[in-house]
Amino acid sequence: MKGGVYSHRDKWRVMFKGDWFFRNEHGELLYSYRQAVNFLEHLNKLGENYDPSLFKNKGPYHFDEAFQSYLNGKKTDSEWHQMKGQVWKKYFNPFFKNMDIREIKNIHIENFNQHLERQGRGSKTVKNILSILHGFLKYHFVRDNIPRIPMFPEVKYQRPRIKWLTEEEVNQVFEFVSSEDLPIFTFIKTYGCRGEEASGLV
């Protein structure tokens, strides 16, 4: 019998002719070894009629549908989450188009990273975009929609320098602090304690 059966995070997966499967011909997750073996036997019986697309269309696998599923699955309305939809339209959609997310491999991530660099995107922007892409793929990996998460390059960027205020500038700022709050701010300025430590004194 061709192919193999492998354990995968409390479930099972089947490898057949270079394709990975987490669900059987009925779209059921492979929760048991016996279930996985039965599916592998089914694939072997297909012979020349084997078509992986018949078993890989039971979920939101095309990029646009999968990304919409990811956005809807996150119960938050934060500004960062809202920005993800804009990143999809501006960066992901033109590059990945409607690619099957199960086919995204290391080479695609590398090419996408180089694509962003050729566009002149800054290191911090590239890091943010790749972070969203990684979170998106991880979301579907946890749900067994994709077999693995491809490797992502480490993007280093120069953090902006801290612009310290002079003592004179600090005194000017303190002119706008209410007399009621002034003692605690004066304490922080004098002893250089953390904000969390100072809040414990209030």
Low-confidence stretches: none
Structural class: mainly alpha
Shape: elongated
Give the termini separation: 72 Å
Strand proportion, as a percent range, falls in 5-15%
Helix content: 40-55%
Nearest-integer average pLDDT: 86
Discrete helix count: 8
Query: How is the biggest beta sheet arranged?
Result: 3 strands, antiparallel
Strand order of the largest sheet: 1-2-3
Describe this entry's structure for a reader.
By secondary structure, the protein is mainly alpha-helical. The protein folds into three domains: 4-54, no CATH class; 63-142; 167-199, no CATH class. 49% of the residues lie in helices and 7% in strands. The chain has eight helices and three strands. It has helices spanning 33-46, 63-73, 79-96, 106-118, 123-142, 167-174, 182-191, 195-199; strands spanning 4-8, 11-16, 19-21. A three-stranded antiparallel β-sheet has the order 1-2-3, covered by helices on one side. The chain is elongated, with a radius of gyration of 26 Å. The chain starts with a strand and ends with a helix. 16% of the residues are buried.
How would you briefly describe this protein structure?
By secondary structure, the chain is mainly α.
Feature tags:
single chain; 202 residues; mainly alpha; 8 helices; 3 strands
Layout: helices, strands, pairs:
Layout: E1 4-8, E2 11-16, E3 19-21, H1 33-46, H2 63-73, H3 79-96, H4 106-118, H5 123-142, H6 167-174, H7 182-191, H8 195-199
Antiparallel strand pairs: 1-2, 2-3
Helix pairs in contact: 2-3
